[in-house]
Amino acid sequence: MNPPAQSPAAAAPAPTTRPLRGQLGTYLGLAAVLIGMVVLFSSLSEYFFTAETFITIANEVPALTVMAVGMTFVLIIAGIDLSVGSVLALSAAVTAAAILQWKLAVPAAAALGLATGLLCGAITGAVSVAWRLPSFIVSLGMLEAVRGGAYLVTDSRTQYVGDAIAGLAAPWIGGVSSAFVLAVAIVIVGHLVLTRTVFGRHVVGIGTNEEAMRLAGIDPRPIRIAVFAVTGLLAGLGGLMQSARLEAADPNAGAGIELQVIAAVVIGGTSLMGGRGSVINTFFGVLIIAVLEAGLAQVGASEPAKRIITGAVIVAAVIIDTVRQRRAGAA
Question: Which residues contact 56 (CB under 8 A, 6 or more apart)?
Fold first, then answer.
């Protein structure tokens, strides 16, 4: 006798949301780490605990923040995107070329830069889905290809756009740039999409049990492509933010920033194995990375020392995530 057919609702994984108390505990834990770092660096440097330091940090993190939001979704579906730094550079380069060489209006040039990021992300997602290739390999190839594109567009030279898009980095509230306000708004939107929409539930479901999603009649392929496309779009926005702050598009911009992005997401508690993550926690991770770098710079740490310490923090976050996963599996 054949077993009864399983309904789509029964087959679909029910992505579990953490109890409010558990979420609050995580927020408080990350906030405690952040405050502890501020206290530590304030005791080591008399210049750290100043409004100028915190405004500088706020104005330097928008690009990292928006890229980390996209990477949170990518890691939740058990993927990874190593090309975001190169996409940042290419999007900024296309925007600069559109303004300086093609004489497009600034809004049209910015839209073209964002579309470039969206296209790069969509290609990464489509190739990995169509040929069932690990996103690690595909995005690694895109990292090199897109970086080459940035060199071609800029003729391997920094393009100075001046104040054409500087409004995005202009001081707005208490010296904090409009880019930071926009980045915080994107964090809030990302959190709501992940926790309050069907798309967010599908993202978590794919990372938790992709086969169960298929049995529920939900095709994970377009969702995967959409996640990578949005991540590319946010990397493109990060390129605009960085160009606005520096008033230039550098083809070498964003080199290595993908490691900072992944570090911020992992420090925020998003699982490298997929199925679990929080955009709010990712924002805490971004702030922790930013405060760590600013504090180390102010206490006079050398560049090698800063890289060693930052790397140790990343490894510690991965170890904590692995221990957490094992305990959850044993429970």
Answer: 294
